[in-house]
Amino acid sequence: MNKLLAEEIYYDMVLGRLFELAAKEHYMAGDIAGFLHLDIGQEGFSVAAMKAFEKGDVFTTYREHVMAISRGIDPQAVMAELFGKASGISRGRGGSMHLFDPSHFFYGGDAIVGGQIPNAVGCAYARKFLGQEDGVMVVFGDGATSGGAFFESLNNASTKKLPLLFLCENNGYAIGTKITRVAPFEKQAKKAEPYMLTMEVDGMDAVAVYKAVKEAQHLIQDGHGPVFLEAMTCRYEGHSMSDPGNYRSKEELEICKAKDPIERMEKVLHETYLLSSEQIDTLRQRAQKVVDDAVEFATAAPEPELEELYTEVFCKGCANVVS
Amino acid sequence: MNKLLAEEIYYDMVLGRLFELAAKEHYMAGDIAGFLHLDIGQEGFSVAAMKAFEKGDVFTTYREHVMAISRGIDPQAVMAELFGKASGISRGRGGSMHLFDPSHFFYGGDAIVGGQIPNAVGCAYARKFLGQEDGVMVVFGDGATSGGAFFESLNNASTKKLPLLFLCENNGYAIGTKITRVAPFEKQAKKAEPYMLTMEVDGMDAVAVYKAVKEAQHLIQDGHGPVFLEAMTCRYEGHSMSDPGNYRSKEELEICKAKDPIERMEKVLHETYLLSSEQIDTLRQRAQKVVDDAVEFATAAPEPELEELYTEVFCKGCANVVS
Amino acid sequence: MLYREALNKAIDEAMAVDETVVVLGEDVGLYGGSYRVTEGLIARYGEKRLIDTPIAELSIVGNAVGMAMGGLRPVAEIMTANFALLAFDQIINHMAKYRYMSAGKITLPMVVRFPQGVSRQLAAQHSESYEQMLSAVPGLIVFAAGDVNYAYHALKYAILSDDPIVFIEHELLYNKKGEVDLNAEFDPFKARIVKEGKDVTIVSYLKMVDDVMAAVPEIEKQLGKSCEVIDLCSLNPIDFKTLESSLKKTGSIVVVEEDHKMGSYGAQIISWAAEEMFYSLDAAPLRISGADVPIPYNRRLELASIPTPDSITEQIVSWAGNNGI
Amino acid sequence: MLYREALNKAIDEAMAVDETVVVLGEDVGLYGGSYRVTEGLIARYGEKRLIDTPIAELSIVGNAVGMAMGGLRPVAEIMTANFALLAFDQIINHMAKYRYMSAGKITLPMVVRFPQGVSRQLAAQHSESYEQMLSAVPGLIVFAAGDVNYAYHALKYAILSDDPIVFIEHELLYNKKGEVDLNAEFDPFKARIVKEGKDVTIVSYLKMVDDVMAAVPEIEKQLGKSCEVIDLCSLNPIDFKTLESSLKKTGSIVVVEEDHKMGSYGAQIISWAAEEMFYSLDAAPLRISGADVPIPYNRRLELASIPTPDSITEQIVSWAGNNGI
Ligand SMILES: Cc1ncc(C[n+]2csc(CCOP(=O)(O)OP(=O)(O)O)c2C)c(N)n1
Ligand SMILES: Cc1ncc(C[n+]2csc(CCOP(=O)(O)OP(=O)(O)O)c2C)c(N)n1
Ligand SMILES: [Mg+2]
Ligand SMILES: [Mg+2]
Predict the structure, then answer these.
(1) Nearest residue to C285 via CA among C304, C298, C272
(2) pTM of the model
(3) Cα of D54 to ligand 2 centre, how many Å?
(4) Domains C3-170 and C192-322 fall in the same CATH topology
(5) What is D192-322's CATH topology?
(6) What is the pLDDT of residue D184?
(7) Do the chains contact at C126 and A309, CB–CB below 8 Å?
């Protein structure tokens, strides 16, 4: 990883953290509603995965703000979406859980746990069919690894040797349920073993995640078939803003926070890339500015017109055809 | 296996074969309709599994006539069900695919591929909860091992260490689709490896199936948790009466028929248990008589009354309650 | 008592009287349920009876069916209606049919409960209503709890009954307050006359009952007529008797429902009225429903996609004008 | 040409004009489809475009959604309606909603097709109809092919259109004969007037259109009135214009459908007639539907569970008597 990239990753992580903190603040202020799932603690994972999987398509879940931004979607359009505004990336119709941007090959934002995985399989089939060799990455949580959609996808992707990276973000919890209470083992990669190569990485270490995803993408691009990569992470906040998170002990949370991916990356910048504290600070300030601008933009952005309610439901032609 | 049991298994296999042949005949004569899935070629598997899994609950699929009979359900009630008669085991409402008899702990006859598997998981939970230690066996085809219901069940049964035997009847085909064309490997037990002990058996060898199922049942009764047993079999007929079965070559079918489980068991009776040809013939004749009686019974049995259309839909009380 | 407390009480009491009652679902145990309906129960009844499941709705219902076959009385919770779609095969092909297909040999004493409807900006994948689909499945009883008293009595009835029952709750009702009348005889199949009236029959259920009641004073004021408001309670079977008497009295019927209009549950009620009560109708029936769109996130759009007290008032008043009421 | 041949021709021609059209489903490739709809296509277009899938309906639709996102035009076949329940999450939460949720950024040019209905003694898990459920989902177009000409034109339209479309066939129509009119302009959204008449409007779709047509001569004879028979064709959106003109002419409406009555698709049509056309109705509308029971195996019971030409005649004649028609 060169210095520029390391900086970029660090910058995106900070941007992600600050974005999430702003989202939290504006949720509490009532500017954002619905379910808001913060990615705080997992920025290293989210950012590094997006940076490493350079080209190709990405499918993910409702916990996707940081990924969306790191994928290149304008933070203003993301924040405006959280605010439900017409300038949002989904014109205020999707909200926090449903950020979509095909121009960035980002089909994120499925709120049915595991539901995006078969979609990613189909997309991988399509891309291979069309001779597009970049591959597809699907991100999902540990909670998704017990549902039929996930299992069917392992089987199908493996049968067809599809260029698909299964990237499991294992933060140990599905809302309040510890994965080990509802699965026979702790690491879910085991479920993929009959079907494909599996790998594990420390999801709190952005550099490691970057390398692992890069390696996996090369494998799938080389026609190796699907790969399963599990990243052990942890989230600092409750599942969503409506979850107080009482099921985790203070100690558990402390251990988790001690691995903070941003601090870790900061150390890397210092020690490996010899950035000064001032240089790092400049990056932070730049990120803060972007977040502040995003909030300002979102605040000022217009509400969707009421006519928006009825657009893009049916085909454009239908109404005429019938009448 | 003692002689009596060997005879019994052989007798049930012949009974099964003759029953299926009679069903086929009466389907062609128009006495039976709908989908009729014959078990010809697989009788060794079906009978031995039922005999071995003595107590406990059995869940299975639409290809279940032979299992039902071997489980102890009166062949007359089964044949009458195929004829759609009021004396049928499901009073003519279920037909060939839906034979149920809780008094024999037989919840067979689900026609949604894989649909019975989560039911069996739940039943195993209930039995364990209630301190009933016989265990549950769920039978399904190779075609069921790609669907979400199956996978979720492996995971759940394993997490809860349930007394459940997953018995896969792998006859290599799901209707016209060879399993190897739609799965990454030939033997489906591999899919269960992350979750439980897996075993394989020659499904054309009744003695081997008997032993394997016995062993598996002991394991699950001993609190070992779920076990997966895969039996390699083959069916002689098309998938159902409406399938001409053109997707299999003559040679493939010949190879398959050369392993005939009945002939094989006959040899065992001769060689190990020293039965004479006459003794074997007597068993055959006895079976033929039972099948003939079943057909006669089914033919003579009354059609259900038209009022039957509306019984057992809602609770008995509802109508009154509302009125 | 709050609606969610009433549900909790119903489950608690059913578990106390019958040891075979078990609850399963995502986060129902340690977490106490995402809407706190099962709070505290795991402490009382243990992990074997409060079963936290992984996120696998097909299995939640599929296992419940098997548990019922194996001698238990499972109460399955699906976290939100939308996820119930993953279990539709088990609900419709299994839960609803085993009794009939087996000629009554199999009974399934089980309940599947879930919250549905438009809450607050949960967007398209978390805001749906499925009474339309599930009430149309022969073999299922479908209850919809519109108030605290019904929530308690009907859920307790459902758990202890031998029938497969779908029990629908509404996302926005969990903190609704109300009384539970423990002395009254209770019939969960009976519609509830929320308010008597003589000129217009308004039929509703779940949260829309509250919205109707919020609209009624203004409607009555503007029209100078009185409305009879009925909470259907049991969506299948339907208490047509109660509807019939009301309709005979008023000569008109309005259905108010939150779900999309096209093919809605309310169409069944209007269709019944037109088919069976045609000559008692003095006016065209009216159906007030949600818009035929997936539910949008933005609050203005969201509110525009469902009936509100204001839009109910407006539509009824304008309808009354057009129909000479 | 047979109905199944018309479907085959539609798929074949769509595959020929657009290389991104792919077909996926169980036994659609080598086997040629369990109702022979895709027969011969694998020889022409190869395994990459005729994709035999394992038995995993959720993935069949879920993969099709992803294929459409990735640049293909998938045509997914579900072997029988009942199994589509396993894919309801993908159909309803994904296929129907991605366009709206993404504010139009994602388009899903895809078709999900399946046969439904009561065939011949296939019993409760193989005899169902889901137009009631699927027509109620905003974002999905639902076509129901009642004849050979429509089967060809509407399927070809569906495959080449950019909308997510559910295409419903009927188990008993595959061997139905008919002409395909290749010259006519074709509008898949338009209802088809199967027979003109002036006294009674009978609305139907899929196989029931044939049963209605079989009943009509006797009905007309007994009543001395003439019936207008309409095949809806597009179940969502509905061609209300055609219904409206007919109803204005006849003053009465009968819906005939195979599905269970409770909450049926036809309730939507009757409800519309009562709400929107009340003052044009001279008689109570009539809905003739299947019984509210899972479909039994026994042939007599099975026939008793659905409308037949005889029962249609009987019900319409007795209704006409009661309503002074
Ligand atoms: C099919 C389905 N079931 C249940 C839910 C409710 N739900 C939303 S997120 C969630 C937990 C998911 O956990 P995990 O996959 O580990 O992701 P994380 O939130 O930890 O990132 C649940 C149960 C849902 N959205 N979809
Ligand atoms: C969910 C579902 N999908 C499709 C079908 C149609 N179908 C019936 S049997 C069958 C093949 C099953 O094959 P397998 O499980 O190997 O059992 P076998 O018939 O070979 O014994 C299929 C696809 C079904 N009944 N259920
Ligand atoms: Mg998690
Ligand atoms: Mg098979």
Answers:
(1) C272
(2) 0.98
(3) 10
(4) yes
(5) Rossmann fold (3.40.50)
(6) 81
(7) no
| Residue B239 CB–ligand 2 contact under 6 Å | yes
Residues of chain A positioned with their CB less than 8 A from the CB of B155: 146, 151, 183-184, 191
Mean pLDDT for chain D overall: 97
**Where do the domains of chain C lie?**
3-170, 192-322
Is some CB atom of chain C closer than 8 A to the CB atom of B128? no
Do the Cβ atoms of C30 and A34 come within 8 Å?
no
DSSP assignment string, A244-284: --TTS-HHHHHHHHTT-HHHHHHHHHHHTT---HHHHHHHH
Domain map (residue ranges) of chain B: 3-310
Over the Cα atoms of chain D, what is R_g?
A: 20
Q: How far apart are CA C11 and CA C20, in angstroms?
A: 12
Question: Which residue from D234, D288, D233 is spatially nearest to D260, judged by alpha carbons?
Answer: D288
Per-run averaged pLDDT (10 residues), chain C, 325 residues: 98 98 98 97 98 98 98 98 98 97 95 98 97 97 98 98 97 98 91 98 98 98 98 97 98 98 98 98 98 98 98 98 94
C3-170 maps to which CATH number?
Answer: 3.40.50.970
Given the DSSP bridges, would you call strands C227-231 and C192-195 parallel, antiparallel or unpaired? antiparallel
* Among candidates B98, B177, B310 on the partner chain, residue whose Cβ is nearest the Cβ of D27: B177
Smallest Cα–Cα separation from B190: which of A200, A181, A169, A158?
A158
Closest ligand relative to D94 C-alpha = 1
Instruction: Answer whether A99 touches C (CB < 8 Å).
Output: no
Give the span between the Cα atoms of A7 and A275, in whole angstroms: 9
ipTM over 0.90? The verdict is: yes
What backbone torsions phi and psi does residue C194 show, to the nearest 5 degrees?
Answer: -80, -35
Question: Angle CA(C12)–CA(C15)–CA(C17) in degrees, nearest 5?
Answer: 110
- Proportion of chain D above pLDDT 90, given as a percent: 99
Task: For residue C301, list chain A residues with Cβ-Cβ distance below 8 A.
Answer: 92-93, 304, 306, 308-309
CA–CA separation, D50 vs D42, rounded Å? 6
Written out in words, the top-level CATH class of the domain with range B3-310 is alpha beta
